[in-house]
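hey so u asked for the seq, here:
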Amino acid sequence: MPHERTTITTRDGECPADLFTAGDGRPGPAIIFYMDAGGIRPAVRGMAERLADAGYVVLLPDLFYRYGPYGPFDPKELFKGDFRAVIGPLVATTGNVKAAEDSEAFLAYLDGRADVQGDKVGAVGFCMGGGMAIAAAGAWPDRFAAVASFHGGNLATETPGSPHSYAPRLKAELYIAAAENDGGYPPAMAQQFETALNQAQVRYRAETYPAAHGWMKPDFPVYDEAAAERGWREMLAFFDRTLR
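ran it, structure tokens below
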């Protein structure tokens, strides 16, 4: 599996990133992978690699670059203690608005690669990254064709940069995969988010998986293999339909 490590210059500094491509050497559509709050670590790189194996050029930027060096963290160990106390200072350095701004540089980087097919890209985000992926697509609507969000939280809040506020600008099609009994995305919030999408006539499909928040991440204590494999099938079918 071809894997490169690079640094992308953003408005705020130097962002380390991983780039994964399929092993056959053929160009493919690009997908930007917006990480969860656990940061860059082997499990996340493995997920990006699996997506690249399906024929995509996958960019995995380290959205905590403003913080400086950290980890890598082991989520199973973090969840035994005060997860928020450890991760909070890193999360505070980014957010939906900053990730959307960073995406300008990510898109420019992908534009300079000969192995990227087409000028429309996809995005996938997990947990924290779900909202970031939606915000990026709203900030750069002519560039994103498809966005998948898995167990994304806080998708409709009063906070500036809330993902639902980007709905009127979205041109991408969305796939929203929610978790059951998710305190970060309760039914009332899901209804508010979907109402915003409906009012803006955004194409989307929303599903609730019988799994806990974080079920897609293989290094999370709540990882659910059956639900995760279903999520992978849905994600790949979604991107194959919208990006190829």
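Helices lie at 42-53, 75-78, 83-91, 96-111, 128-139, 187-199, 225-243. Strands lie at 3-9, 14-20, 30-34, 57-61, 121-126, 144-150, 173-179, 204-209.
lmk if thats what u needed
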